[in-house]
Amino acid sequence: MQQVQAVVARAKGEPVELTTINVPDPGPGEAVVKIQACGVCHTDLHYREGGINDDFPFLLGHEASGTVESVGEGVTEVAPGDFVVLNWRAVCGECRACKRGEHKYCFATHNAEQKMTLEDGTELSPALGIGAFAEKTLVAAGQCTKVDPEARPAAVGLLGCGVMAGIGAAINTGAATRGRSVAVIGCGGVGVAAVAGAALAGSSPVIAVDIDAKKLEAAKANGATHTVDSSQVDPVEEIKRICAETYEGAEGADVVIEAVGRPETWKQAFYARDLAGVLVLVGVPTPDMTVPDLPLIDVFGRGGALKSSWYGDCLPSRDFPMLTDLYTSGRLDLDAFVSEEIGIGDVEAAFAKMHDGSVLRSVVIL
Ligand code: APR
Ligand code: ZN
Ligand code: ZN
Known about the structure:
By secondary structure, this protein is α/β, with parallel strands linked by helices. The chain has 2 domains: 2-160 and 333-365, Alpha-Beta Complex (Quinone Oxidoreductase, Chain A, domain 1), CATH 3.90.180.10; 166-310, NAD(P)-binding Rossmann-like Domain (Rossmann fold), CATH 3.40.50. The chain is built from 11 helices and 18 strands. The protein has helices at residues 42-48, 96-99, 153-157, 162-173, 189-200, 213-221, 235-246, 263-271, 296-300, 316-328, 347-353; strands spanning 2-9, 17-23, 30-39, 58-59, 63-71, 83-86, 117-118, 125-126, 136-140, 144-146, 182-185, 206-210, 226-229, 253-258, 273-281, 305-308, 340-342, 362-365. The strands form 3 sheets. Strands 3, 5, 6, 9, 10, 17 and 18 form a 7-stranded mixed β-sheet that branches. Strands 13-12-11-14-15-16 form a 6-stranded parallel β-sheet, sandwiched between helices. It has a 5-stranded mixed β-sheet with strand order 7-2-1-4-8, with no helix packed on it. Helix 8 links the parallel strand 14 (253-258) and strand 15 (273-281). Helix 4 (162-173) crosses helix 5 (189-200). The chain is globular and about 65 Å long. The mean pLDDT is 96. Residues 42, 162, 185-191, 209-212, 215, 230, 259-261, 265, 283-284 line the site of adenosine-5-diphosphoribose (APR). Keywords: Metal-binding, NAD, Oxidoreductase, Zinc.
């Protein structure tokens, strides 16, 4: 066991606190990771606000990279010294979903079995099974994916959550490719990553939609060919018009990614699709939201698909090293998502900045 400094949310709505926690030595199948960088995500704030569950105290932070310090018995995935990006859940490799090659639907995912604790022995709930606003954290070895150690920790750590969700929504879920049009509604960190993913895949046009002009600038800098301010114009008509300009007869975009998580933007995405288009929902709705009232004939009248993208439908062992290599070779600008590097004591200040629109990601450097 060892003691490290970490950011803990003790009670609903209370500001987070920098405190000492106990990190056990890794047991069978576990690893202790020395964290180098961890992005501040909306989900951390949702935990602190009690919006996810009531399992306080939470050890926050979950978009992280670091170096494996030690591993427990039977660990073969990683070894001490490996530079890794962390993912939410290790897959089992043995259930029906894993056996048919669809690890993203694994029925038996797991995290570390042992618990990290506060100094008084209270068990901590690590955010998304990680808890990486900490000098060191304990995870299941399968939550660690080795990536190129030359990569900047702050940039590749973001692959552990929001950036992966966005890029994966475009590439994995939406199957964006060259010869296809993509529209992204909502250009926060997730939406801009979806724009970058669509551009990386060679799609054109890549249409970014938001109600905030600053967000549209960020989307443009990351590969959007067109921007639509939906506070000024009808985004459905604009998307249809732009797509028809490129592909004669197109009735909308081949892929529309909803990255806000609201019924009204989902409805825009539904109608902005080409007849055979795919709608990808990656924004996370709240439990009280319902599918907008739609004439069933409008669902029938279009083919295509209505999909959701969970964690960008990623396979960390495939996607983290691949995207890291695209980053180090200059084809994917992950640095664009790192708006500022901050200290471990600045997480609360980063939460406050989240809503002013200027920050894609604040990243804690350790
Ligand atoms: N139309 C278009 N864009 C909108 C609208 C709207 N009606 N309402 C909000 N937006 C834009 C905001 O201006 C912002 O740029 O959606 C974006 C949301 O971005 P963020 O709040 O930064 O959220 P982000 O981290 O990108 O996550 C997006 O995915 O992970 C989930 O919980 C997260 O639901 C959220 C979504
Ligand atoms: Zn499984
Ligand atoms: Zn996150």
